[in-house]
Amino acid sequence: MPNFNLSSKLNNIGSFYRNRKKPRSQSININPCANVVDADSPSIDGAMFFLSSSNGLCGNLSFGKKSILFEFGRDLGESHSANSSIPLDPTEPKCPIKEEPVRNSYAIDFLNIGDIYAEQSTDHLSITIFCQNFKHVKISLKQSEIASAIIDKIKTISFDNMVQSNVESRICLWEYLYQNYPYRQNSDWVEQEKWYISNFKIRLTNFNEIGTCNSLPDTIIVPRDLQDHMLDRLASLSVGNRVPLITFLYRKSSHMIVRCSSFREQNLQDLVPRSTITPLRELSIDAIFAELNDIEKQYSRLRKHCFAVTKQSDHLSTANQENEHESKFWSKCSHWLYALSKVLRFVTTLVNIVKHEATAALTESNDNRWNCVLSSLVQIVLDPHRRTVAGFESLLSKEWIYLSGYKSRSPGSNRVRQVNHLPNSTFFILFLDCVHQLIAQNPRSFEFTTIYLISLVDMQFTTDSFKREAAKRFEVNKAHSLICNPLYTGSRGSTTADSDEPQINAHITQIRFFYLLFFRHIKSDTLKFLPAESVLWNEALRRSLV
């Protein structure tokens, strides 16, 4: 990686920021003098910074430990964006699919960087950063030694290594859920779940208080006849010292969903007395989804071709974009749609098992990927509360954080520590896409729209230190009219909402591409809203809410 002192070049580049605060290390000050070619494509002598289809901004580009930061002056911001000097109203909901006017700074988190595409012309060097949340940012610099060094630095930073090595990084989404929907103690389970209290088949246990399993909370729910000494034995025989735990009880049949990691050379049914969980259907998830084990490769392919369409959209007309999309895109990304179809077909099977046949025991090697997806989706179908915002968020906290080992205690200590692995981002987006399919097929069954799912994706790729202000901003945004579903027929805010069970059509011809997320920065006339969301979007435009 080249070692260069950018601050020593200030005098050669421009004087606009000369009287401003000293730039950060490894940063460059940009000459703001603009040489506009046309109204839509400003060519700036120094830098051109694009957010979506906005006009260029020029300012100070710097590199921190966790992000690339672009900063520009208040006066300059006012010249490019109307009302940019007006501070954001913290009580005004912000639409997650509509960019707010940039006010003085914009950060690109290293975790959010997906692919990087560099190009050069006679006068300029530019680099396009395609983000994990399917946004993209373009930075253009006038040809110079400094510009080449900056482009090379962005291209050669090992983003994955920087994120992995920074053990203090905390993802805003998981921190928000961890703090607001706890599953640590008996009282937390009582408050969040409420379904176990009077049932004779299950019990709370604090067997993990001594730290037998670092990836489980102190308190879990298990079958009533499964005593603590039996749990200790099961922990010693399982991968990761995890034990079978109950994550959902279907009231009408008293059948349950049990999550557990795989056992060494034995099955769960061979290790527990038959009377403990009866009737029981043990399902080896690793075997059932063996053909989808390369799901991360398929997601990488999907992201690559979405970015390719986004890149082409800078040069093609809307009609050409559509033709290009139809002719090539589906064949390249059909594996992702097939994966969605297979997951939903299996969820339908699980729903029928839990409703009519037996308790379903989901056995997965480490109990933290497919089990999170499947258990969450079954609960969304069978429990109306999980189709409200509060119920959905508590579900994410339970399945993806507390029962999957996002955080845990050090053995024999009350000190909470960060576990090496985070909830897998590919599986989480797969899960959100499955929820998107359910919302598309059952628009009256959910309190929230698919636009709310996009706000979760954005929070998943932000690793800035968790702050109370970020949580407040997220809470405010959930009140946006594009997130609250006006067609919802259940009881908002109720934990006992009574609504029809969502129907699942898992045939591949009924799987809808998540245009609003995957093509979020292609011009809005090519975005494909769901029918109900189209009405919301047009109304929001009429009322100037976006």
Structural summary, described in words:
The protein has 546 residues and is α+β, with helices and mostly antiparallel strands. It folds into 2 domains: 6-165, Roll (PH-domain like), CATH 2.30.29; 172-542, no CATH class. It has helices spanning 10-13, 74-80, 145-156, 159-165, 172-180, 186-192, 228-237, 268-271, 285-288, 295-313, 318-357, 370-382, 389-402, 425-441, 450-460, 468-477, 515-518, 531-542, and strands at residues 27-28, 34-36, 42-44, 47-51, 60-63, 67-71, 105-109, 113-120, 124-131, 136-142, 202-205, 220-223, 245-250, 255-261, 280-284, 359-364, 407-409, 416-418. The protein has a 4-stranded antiparallel sheet with strand order 1-5-6-7, with no helix packed on it. Strands 4-10-9-8 form a 4-stranded antiparallel sheet, sandwiched between helices. Strand 8 and strand 9 (124-131) form a beta hairpin. The longest helix is centred in the middle third of the chain and has 40 residues, at 318-357. Residues 1-46, 74-87 and 316-323 have low confidence and may be disordered.
